[in-house]
Amino acid sequence: MKSKHNTNPDNQPNQIPNRRARQAKKQDDRTDEAGYQKLPPGLRPFAGFAQRDPLDYDSHPYPSMRRFAEFLALRFDAPRTRHSYYRHMRLVHEFCQADPDTITESQLRDYILHVKTVKHWKSKTIHQAAAASKLFFIELMEHEE
């Protein structure tokens, strides 16, 4: 028999009443990563559909990155996957400040430690960064595992 009195005001089972809202109610509550929130809308980086595929980028910082974009186009069908893997390798070469072709194993290890301990990335993102690095160094550049 159903009770006439509903003890849950939101009428949702197993809801904790004092739980913090999942989304920010005000703009001030959002994260301010990389300072993009403070920039005027005209100066914010464009992350639309046209900028997803690394093959469509106007320029690549190194020839090895162009080869990696072509390698990703042959390997993956989804532009979002290609963009994510390319972005991880861009972050690696920006961290090491060198051509990705010349990055050593110790530099890559330092980068993985940096994103894990300093940037506090989640394990899924770290695994994706490691997978992108593995594709680049082992399959494209044919280094030993």
Verbal overview:
This protein has 145 residues and is mostly helical. It has a domain at 83-145. The protein has four helices and no strands. The protein has helices spanning 63-75, 79-96, 105-117, 123-140. Helix 1 (63-75) runs antiparallel to helix 2 and helix 2 packs across helix 4 (123-140). The radius of gyration is 21 Å and the shape is globular.
Instruction: Round the Cα radius of gyration to an integer and report it.
Output: 21 Å
Helix content: 40-55%
Instruction: Give the low-confidence spans.
Output: 26-34
**Structural class designation:** mainly alpha
Order of helices and strands: HHHH
Taking all residues together, what is the mean pLDDT? 78
Number of helices: 4
Give the tally of β-strands. 0
Strand content: under 5%
Q: End-to-end distance, in Å?
A: 64 Å
What characteristic shape results from the CA principal axes? globular
Main beta sheet: strand number and arrangement?
Answer: none
Concise synopsis of the structure shown:
With 145 residues, this protein is an all-alpha fold.
Topology:
Layout: H1 63-75, H2 79-96, H3 105-117, H4 123-140
Helix pairs in contact: 1-2, 2-4, 3-4
Please name the defining characteristics of this protein.
single chain; 145 residues; mainly alpha
